[in-house]
Here is the input.
Amino acid sequence: MRIGILTAGGDCPGINAAIRGVGKTAILEHGMEVIGISSGFLGLINHEFVPLDENQLSGILTLGGTILGTSRENPFKKSSAFNAVDKPKLIKKHYHEMGLDALVCIGGNGTQRTAAMLAEEGLNVIGIPKTIDNDVWGTDITFGFDSALLITTDAIDRLHTTANSHKRIMVIEVMGHHAGWLALYSGVAGGGDVILIPEIEFDIHMVARCLKKRAINKKPYSIVVVAEGISTPKGESAARYISNSISELTGLETRETILGYIQRGGSPSPMDRVLATRYGAYAVELIAAKKFGEMVSLKGNIVTSIPLREVGGKLRLVPIDHPLVEKARKMAVCFGRESC
Here is the structure.
């Protein structure tokens, strides 16, 4: 068999480990040919690819980013151009010209949705979920999340020292447009006093009341962790809005830090290397069994799969009664909707 691999959407640690897991298992265990497709779905549209052998897959386990390149190209997005290219048709044409028997799509929600649509078009597709946001439906965890969690927690740890030195409130913004997994876990791991996530509606006055109470109780500083996707006035960053509001409502000195793309960079954590490798190897087992139209997933500690048609268009959000939220509340962490 000949299989293609592409990586689409935002980069994150662990992608190369997944490519390696797919490629080495395919070549060494099953004697398959492996084709690397450049720049996500754009490579399928432009017919840009390179054969991958075992030597090219060596030494990439620890590398961040993706050796194949990526893009946010959505071939099913309607173009306003009158004579727009039929991209799905072009992808199908190039898929067959490459002689592919299957296509492995490594990516987040948008990638899995596109993979599901390509499966409906008749292509043999397997999805592998990755994103630091941990918001792909149908799996307990995506690779990339643990690495980002280490980075954000380390940043919060470092901000504790400067906050304590200057007796300030520090507001730290982490990634998460719709899902607050990264803010929740790094906030708890980093000892955040306030954690604001998109899933839990907050009252800024309650946040201010909580922080003022801490100051009255002689707590010298406070740490506020916010997800970028919380509700704010249009055009204002989460950190800037929360920081300015706290300063105005409490009179306490407040500073904001936006971690940005540093959260997605660098070498993957050991856990992400292992998880991505497991995902990649299992994707090949699905191909060998001709079980297509599936996304690899983790349930408990078991690697399994779920139909792609069940994944597309859904998000895995933090339940408002999530056990970690409840545990944090019992330790006086404020989520902005309860009095402190």
Observations:
- The chain has a mean pLDDT of 95.
- The first helix runs from residue 15 to 30.
